[in-house]
Amino acid sequence: MDGYDYIIVGAGSAGCVLANRLSTDPAIRVLLLEAGPADNSLLIRMPGAVGLVTHSSRFSWGYETEPQEHMNNRRILATRGRTLDGSSSINGMVYIRGHAYDYDRWAEDPGLFHWPYAHVLPYFKRAQNHEYGADDYRGGDGPLRVSRVDTGLWPARPRNPRRSSPCRRPRNLGSRAAYRSRSTPPSRAKSDRRSRP
Ligand SMILES: Cc1cc2nc3c(=O)[nH]c(=O)nc-3n(C[C@H](O)[C@H](O)[C@H](O)COP(=O)(O)OP(=O)(O)OC[C@H]3O[C@@H](n4cnc5c(N)ncnc54)[C@H](O)[C@@H]3O)c2cc1C
To answer: For the segment 60-82, what is each residue's pLDDT rounded down to a tens digit?
Structure first.
C-alpha cells in the first residue's frame, strides 16, 4: 500500500500521543516526522542533566524571546525540545494539573463548554499510572508513570489522598512524571499499545 492516511509533523508530546492513538488501527498508515535526533542520549535519560539538555544545540531549538522592554531589553531563553518526544524529553518531569476552578472558569466561555474539570478528569486519569494506583482522582494503568519525588530535594511524604484532589491549591511540586527515566522513556510510554490515554 502506498502513501499515508495521516502525516504528523513533530514527534513531541502531542505528536507521539496522536501517532500512537491513530496507529491503534493496523489498517491506518501514519507517518510521524521529527526534525531533531533520536532521544537515546544519556543526558536525556538522566534527570539531573536537564540543565545540559535545555542548553544543548543538539536537543533544543535555542529560541529566545524578542528583547523585553521591561527587563532591560534582555532576551529570555524560550527552550523547546528538538528530539524524539520534543520538550518532554528535556523537561523538568514535574507532574502537576491545573486547578479545578480554572477549568470550570474556562468552561463558562461558550466556546469552551467541554472544559469543566469533571469532563477533563477522566482523561487525566486515563493517561496516568500513579505509583499509588487508581483512586477518585488518579489513574493506575495509563502510559505516563507518576511517582512521588524521593531525591532529598523534595523528600517523599506519606500518602495523602488530598494531594490529587481537585480543590487543592496547585503548589505541590512533589510528583514526578517519570518519562525521562531509563525505565519509562517517553516515546516508549507513549507508544505502549497495552494502555493508551
Ligand atoms: C525546559 C522545559 C521544562 C518543562 N518542564 C515541564 C514539567 O516539568 N512538567 C510538565 O508537565 N511540562 C513541562 N514542560 C512543558 C512540556 O514539556 C510541553 O508543554 C510539552 O512537551 C509540549 O508538547 P508539544 O507536543 O506541544 O510540543 P513539543 O513536545 O515541543 O514537540 C514539538 C516537536 O516538533 C518538532 N518540530 C518542530 N518543527 C518541526 C518541523 N518543521 N519538522 C519536524 N519536526 C518539527 C520539535 O523538534 C519537537 O520534537 C517543560 C518544557 C520545557 C521546554
So the answer is: 999 999 999 999 999 999 999 99
8 Å CB contact between 191 and 16: yes
Using a 6 Å cutoff on CB, does residue 187 contact ligand 1? no
DSSP H helical ranges for the chain: 13-22, 42-45, 50-54, 100-106, 117-127, 186-190
- What is the amino acid identity at position 181? S
Protein residue with its CA nearest to atom 51 in ligand 1: 91
Enter the C-alpha cell of residue 9. 509533523
C-alpha cell at 175: 510528583
CA of 81 to the centre of ligand 1 (A): 5
CB 82 less than 6 A from any atom of ligand 1: yes
CA dist., res. 77 & res. 97, Å (int): 24
Instruction: Determine the Cα–Cα distance for residues 169 and 162; give it in Å rounded to an integer.
Output: 10
pLDDT at 47: 84
pTM above 0.85, yes or no: no
